[in-house]
Amino acid sequence: MTRLKIISCFSLLFLATFQLSAQSIRKEYILDKNWKFKKGDHPEAIEDRFNDLKWETVSVPHDWAIKGPFDGSNDLQKVKIEQNMEKEESVKSGRTGGLPFVGTGWYRLKFRVPGFLPGKKAILQFDGAMSHARVYINGKEAGYWPYGYNSFYFDVTSLLNPAGEANTLAVRLENFSQSSRWYPGAGIYRNVHLFVTEDVYIPVWGTYVTTPVINKEFAKVNLKTRVEAAAAKYSDLHLETEIRNSQGTVVATLKSALGETDGLQFDQNLIVKSPSLWSPETPVLYTAVSRLYQGTTLKDEYKTRFGIRSIKYEAGKGFSLNGEVRKFKGVCNHHDLGPLGAAVNVSALRRQLSLLKDMGCDAIRTSHNMPAPELVALCDEMGFMMMVESFDEWKTPKVKNGYSAYFDEWAEKDLINMIHRDRNSPSVVMWSIGNEVPDQSAEGGNKIAKMLQDICHREDPTRPVTVGMDRINDALTKNFAAILDVPGFNYKPTWYEKANNTLPQGFILGTETASTVSSRGVYKFPVEFQKMKQYDDNQSSSYDFEYCNWSQVPDDEFVKQDDLPFVIGEFVWTGFDYLGEPTPYDSKWPSHSSYFGIIDLAGIPKDRYFLYRSKWNTEKPTLHVLPHWTWPGREGQVTPVFCYTSYPSAELFVNGKSMGRQSKNKTNNQTRYRLMWNDVTYEPGTIKVVAYDEKGNQVASQEIKTAGKPHHIELTADRTELSADGKDLSFVTARVVDAEGNVCPDASNLLSFKVKGAGRYKAAANGDATSLELFHLPYMHAFKGMLVAVVESSEKDGEMKLSVSSKGLKPGVLTIKTVADQ
Ligand code: GAL
Asked: In this protein, which residues make up the domain named Glycoside hydrolase family (predicted)?
């Protein structure tokens, strides 16, 4: 039985001051350990006396399907994908990743709540459970929530046993076949919280902060705070609010009494002098600490993190943040974390964001659903603007058993939870109510859009609303695009100009762009533009010339972004490869994951990363040359060399011989952004690019050598010191290199992982969409000379040692520290 450990809702910084009151007033328990899980339907599991000893013991967040095995017949879908312009039905094998997420599964947890004393309130909150959650406490149903991506909560006060007595929590989840266009994950894949409060308290997501006036001298902070109280108990309430800056210093305070006519909501205005503004470059956060008193008794303490920043979307000017016009340099991402599946993990998310930050990316679209709260918190902290999206379909289905069946009853409830949870986050700069909804074409589709947009405006008047539209003709002629705050176009750069002439908004956003396909380290010859190209090996070329029926290569979007001032930015499909949707191999098993990512499923950047970086990262220079230079058998054959660089020109040398200097120029969309030597013939040795600045000075160079035989394994960790919390992760890239340390670009050696000491092996991925090797097993083949092994800290202070070995190679060994209370 688990005795729940309290986590204080105050950061360490505030602990000293608030410890007593925080401990005695509001308690938050994270229900993460010692859950029991079993697949299949087990209705009897709601009973307290049910024997679950033989069930698997798991920790939550948990994804029951990520351990596979992969099978092309899992959720086989015979469909005609209309948005992909398909004319006929065909059988799609890896559409949802080929993983066994379909079916029913049950979770059980036995626990005591030491703080649940008579007169207290208890709220059980799920950040997300996939899907159709039915939650039972001590044999009684606490509630139901169908949408697997949303956060939801139930008041369980009347169901919990008093402190000291045991409780049984049982959760039934069910995933249907043909319910998704990608891998949704399965299980309680996000965190579960139990809050215990007094009978008078601030409810879940009970505060709403806005900053209606911002100037150099001051910001006006408006804080609306709701209160829950039994009818007779809401008299004599007052709220003391403190605003603390990022160092924890109190910068504003206010005490207000609740008037009879206020309903159960305080409305406070505070002034923050000389505010530090939030932006991706300066992600400064403030915290409002609210103390609720009844008479002189402290009833609740509640913390709200927020930022001070202004956003505007204006005709003729576009988008501005804090008064400065800028264009979104964004990516769309799915929620899965590659080899970790859908189970949320903060270090995995932080690593993703760090890679994107270095690329110069400043915005994330959470396609096509509500994100984990941890992602929103990280975007606040690390500086990313967010488009938080809700739905992939409304009333008209895209998949047989998708959200359309729940839309009428649940859409409003789902939007409310999404907005209430995230509307205090400065990172969120717009809401998206849908992606490529077929209702763009339906009679009355614009009425649905208006209805959903109105809900967003009602719940949050400070942010605009968009839809990612693909049926542009219908969207324009059926008065759909015109009613949205932000017209979002998916893959329609050629429409921007004419659409902008007919639309009233005066600006357009590329909600989804590019969808270029590539496999890391794979190069195909001859190098030419290819649409929906399939090869026998189920891979796509990394020369970044391959795309889909509906999509483009990056440069074609860049041109429009650069030349059309009314285009307010783009969200590239996608930042990371994700499980499922293996276009152009949707019908060609084995292939279980996407090719769209700028970064592969293992988190290793593809060449395309450097193309975006060369344009988006304006702080640090980029110089990247491709392909690799180990082509036994290609001697004498044309092997084009590309250079993605932030410098205006570069010269290529093959074995010391100049192939000439190339400069970016506007001859065509590609020469504007890439330097290309198309006629180079391969000879083993060295290729070197030397970059020149605007004045013609040599400023940087990069060299690649023909690799010899695989010799040893080289390891690099993204972090070598982890928190000893049993959850922290280090991502270790293993490279198969020759004796001189050159990556062997075709190496596919089988690598084995061993972890000793204060940690454990968690998973590995190699970015190969066609590999059916299981992520959680401690061995995997390298793909194109590389893979990433993930190790997890234990709860012990100390060191862990990872060794990666392979027959015939000198092993790689790496030590990672684990430190308590990091
Ligand atoms: C879009 C869709 C995305 C993804 C993408 C692939 O049409 O909105 O979810 O399917 O195409 O290019």
From this structure: 713-813
The mean of the pLDDT values for the chain is: 95
CB-count burial class (<10 Å; 0-12, 13-18, 19+) for 51: exposed
Q: What dotted CATH number matches 712-819? A: 2.60.40.10
- In whole angstroms, give the CA distance from residue 136 to residue 167: 10
Q: Among 393, 436, 459, 651, which one carries the catalytic annotation?
A: 436
Measure 445 CA to ligand 1 centroid, in angstroms.
20
Q: Probe ligand 1: pick from 437, 515, 531, 546, max atoms within 8 Å of CB?
A: 515
pTM, 2 dp = 0.96
CA of 593 to the centre of ligand 1 (A): 13
Q: How far apart are CA 794 and CA 807, in angstroms?
A: 29
Does residue 635 carry a catalytic annotation?
no
* The CATH homologous superfamily of the domain defined by 311-515+550-578: Glycosidases (3.20.20.80)
User: Does the C-beta of 515 come closer than 6 Å to ligand 1?
Assistant: yes
List the structure tokens of 653.
């040398």
**Best mutation site among 470, 573, 576 for ligand 1 pocket (most ligand atoms within 8 Å of CB):** 573
Residue 413, phi-psi category: left (phi > 0), alpha (psi -120 to 50), beta (remainder): alpha
CATH code: domain 623-705 is 2.60.40.10
Q: Does residue 21 carry a pLDDT above 50?
A: no
Convert the pLDDT of each residue in 61-101 to its tens digit: 999 999 999 999 999 999 998 888 888 999 999 999 999 99
Instruction: Give the DSSP H or E segment for 469.
Output: strand 465-469
Q: Catalytic residue at 773? A: no
- C-alpha 680/C-alpha 544 separation (Å) is 18
Question: In a mutational test of the pocket of ligand 1, which residue from 79, 81, 181, 436 has the highest number of ligand atoms less than 8 Å from its CB?
Answer: 436
Rounded to whole angstroms, the Cα distance separating 157 from 439 reads 41
Q: CATH number of the domain at 2-197, out of 2.60.120.260, 2.60.40.10, 2.60.120.280, 3.80.30.20?
A: 2.60.120.260
pLDDT tens sequence across 261-280: 788 999 999 999 999 999 99
Per-residue buried b or exposed e for 586-614, using 16+ beta carbons within 10 Å of the residue's own CB? bbbbbbbbbbbbbbbbbbbbbbbbbbbbb
**Ligand 1 centre from 84 Cα, in Å?**
8
Banded model confidence at residue 9, pLDDT cuts 50, 70, 90:
very low
Q: Which residues partner with 333 through β-bridges?
A: 366
Strands (E), 295-418: 297-306, 311-314, 318-321, 324-325, 328-333, 363-366, 385-389
Say which residue the tokens 């430190």 belong to: 819
467 lines ligand 1 (CB under 6 A): no
Q: What is the pLDDT of residues 90-143, one digit of tens each?
A: 999 999 999 999 999 999 999 999 889 999 999 999 999 999 999 999 999 999
Of all protein residues, whose CA lies closest to atom 7 belonging to ligand 1?
A: 83
